[in-house]
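Colleagues,

For the teaching module next term, I've prepared a clean inverse folding example: a structure given as tokens, and then the sequence designed for it. I'd like students to try predicting residues themselves before seeing the answer, so please don't circulate the second half yet.
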């Protein structure tokens, strides 16, 4: 079969091993690494990946040969936890954080998420679209080809719907795939401050059916944390979402461990997010329930804490994990997936192979796209990230620098020389 395009002379090609599920424990330190090889693409999909020069049988009159000498390739990076669509910014809270004011205390003062809720409610669709498009462009030039995007800065139907529709529109307009998550249960709105159970009922009875009817999101998420939603409230919401056909995620054990992990294990959530203060017992629960741990090291960094999720212990307990930016305006204002990968090594003590598996094949299963992205197997989408690096270790060793040069989405060049095309 003739290739449309062939990327040749690659120093290294990182090829995750797709087992039909997320990699667990010691499996995460396994991969096929091809040296001096090529990637052949046909009709937007991977045709062949191999060492050496491409055989003449792949090359036709119109095949485009791209010389990638000195570069390393991986599957397109996947950012599987973001709060992508929001109004305003929160740099005004930065000085408070520097002076030791706790995240939950800022929230109690009407800041934090509630501050962004006010700005997002006030923003027009066009304003949110433009702001989010710029953020996505930053992500793309840092090698990300698929992004999960949560709502949760509306806390009312009108704004939650607006957020999800912005994400849906950008999914069709920009060369990046966006997987939508409904997260109205991100905070307790002012109007329900004394009645959080009533807000959960509102989400279940009025919002979830509308999201499902208009196909606005695949996943449902909830912030299970002290001062936000209890484990029982989270269980009630996610149980109702599961009955309505949503896949489940949960913010758990970010600041305090209050039972969110048990909810994830009981209900068979796809992933549990954050897990900075998870207990050994709860690590075992997630491992046994095959719930993927979605770790967000830049949030710990941004909050200036030392509670990085115990990634090594999770792998020792045969868990599957991934790494994401948690891109949001308050606790983690970044769009740089490479920085997250570097923190995966420097803070979480993961190996480069474990990190690359976390943000490719495992992240694909977190967003339920393991059959089409996350590895370079024949027939999968030709989502490819090229690094100006001789090997996969280099982009993690040479930190705080964008080493992505080119990005291919479904076989088409969308970033060239660190610039959007």
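(Answer key — instructors only)
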């Amino acid at each position: 079969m003739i290739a449309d395009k062939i990327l040749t002379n690659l120093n290294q090609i990182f090829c995750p091993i797709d087992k039909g599920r997320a990699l667990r424990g010691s499996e995460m330190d396994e991969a096929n690494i091809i040296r001096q090889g090529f990637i052949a693409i046909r009709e937007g999909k991977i045709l062949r990946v191999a060492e050496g020069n491409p055989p003449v049988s792949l090359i036709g009159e119109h095949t485009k040969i791209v010389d990638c000498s000195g570069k390393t390739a991986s599957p397109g990076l996947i950012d599987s936890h973001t709060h992508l669509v929001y109004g305003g910014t929160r740099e005004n809270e930065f000085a408070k954080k520097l002076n030791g004011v706790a995240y939950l205390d800022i929230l109690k003062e009407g800041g934090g998420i509630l501050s962004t809720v006010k700005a997002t409610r006030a923003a027009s669709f066009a304003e949110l679209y433009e702001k989010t498009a710029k953020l996505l462009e930053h992500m793309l030039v840092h090698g990300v080809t698929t992004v999960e995007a949560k709502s949760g800065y509306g806390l009312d139907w009108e704004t939650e719907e607006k957020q999800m529709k912005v994400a849906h529109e950008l999914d069709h307009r920009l060369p990046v795939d966006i997987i939508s998550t409904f997260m109205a249960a991100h905070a307790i709105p002012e109007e329900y401050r004394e009645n959080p159970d009533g807000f959960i009922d509102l989400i279940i009875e009025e919002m979830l059916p509308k999201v499902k009817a208009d196909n606005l999101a695949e996943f449902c998420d909830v912030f299970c944390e002290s001062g936000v939603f209890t484990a029982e409230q989270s269980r009630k919401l996610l149980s109702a979402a599961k009955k309505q056909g949503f896949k489940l995620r949960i913010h758990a054990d970010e600041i305090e461990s209050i039972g969110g992990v048990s909810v994830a294990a009981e209900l068979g959530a796809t992933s549990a997010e954050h897990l900075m203060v998870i207990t050994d017992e709860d690590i075992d629960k997630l491992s046994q329930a095959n719930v993927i741990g979605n770790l967000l090291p830049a949030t710990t960094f941004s909050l200036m804490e030392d509670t990085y999720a115990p990634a090594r212990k999770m792998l020792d307990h045969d868990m599957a994990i991934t790494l994401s930016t948690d891109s949001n305006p308050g606790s983690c204002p970044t769009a740089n997936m490479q920085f997250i990968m570097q923190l995966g090594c420097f803070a979480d003590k993961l190996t480069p192979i474990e990190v690359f598996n976390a943000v490719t094949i495992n992240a694909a299963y977190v967003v339920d796209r393991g059959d089409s992205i996350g590895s370079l197997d024949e027939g999968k989408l030709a989502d490819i990230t090229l690094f100006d690096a001789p090997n996969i270790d280099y982009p993690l060793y040479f930190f705080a620098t964008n080493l992505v040069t080119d990005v291919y989405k479904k076989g088409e060049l969308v970033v060239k020389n660190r610039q959007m095309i």
